[in-house]
Amino acid sequence: MGLAHDRTLLDRLISACAVPVNLLAARRHGGERSPAGMPVADPIMNWREVRRATAHLLPGRRYRRRLLWRYTLTWDKPT
């Protein structure tokens, strides 16, 4: 699981859909945005860069953009 930053208008529109969900989740958890002490680094790649780099490094990987500005990669090592 990772984070990517928005580069294009489409990226920004998709990410904007997560704002209401994020606010509801924070409210549900007493206003906390993340667990105390959890390290979080700012993303260094945008969505397209993540897709391209992982396609090259992990052939056959499954890339899915998730809600709340995250993506998941699933890769099975070839036998």
Set down the secondary structure blueprint.
Layout: E1 2-3, H1 9-16, H2 18-28, H3 47-57, E2 62-66, E3 70-74
Antiparallel strand pairs: 1-3, 2-3
Provide an overview of this structure.
With 79 residues, this protein is an alpha+beta fold. Helix content is 38%, strand content 15%. It is built from 3 helices and 3 strands. The protein has helices spanning 9-16, 18-28, 47-57, and strands at residues 2-3, 62-66, 70-74. Strands 1-3-2 form a 3-stranded antiparallel beta sheet, covered by helices on one side. A hairpin with a 3-residue loop joins strand 2 (62-66) and strand 3. The longest helix has 11 residues, at 18-28. It is globular. The model has no long low-confidence stretch (mean pLDDT 86).
**Which secondary-structure class do the elements indicate?**
alpha+beta
Number of strands: 3
Largest sheet: 3 strands, antiparallel
Low-pLDDT runs of 5+ residues are none
| Outline | globular
Mean pLDDT: 86
- Termini separation comes to 24 Å
Range of strand content: 15-25%
The DSSP helix count reads 3
Strand order of the largest sheet: 1-3-2
Report the C-alpha radius of gyration, rounded.
Answer: 15 Å
Helix content: 25-40%
Feature tags:
about 80 residues; alpha+beta; 3 helices; about 15% strand
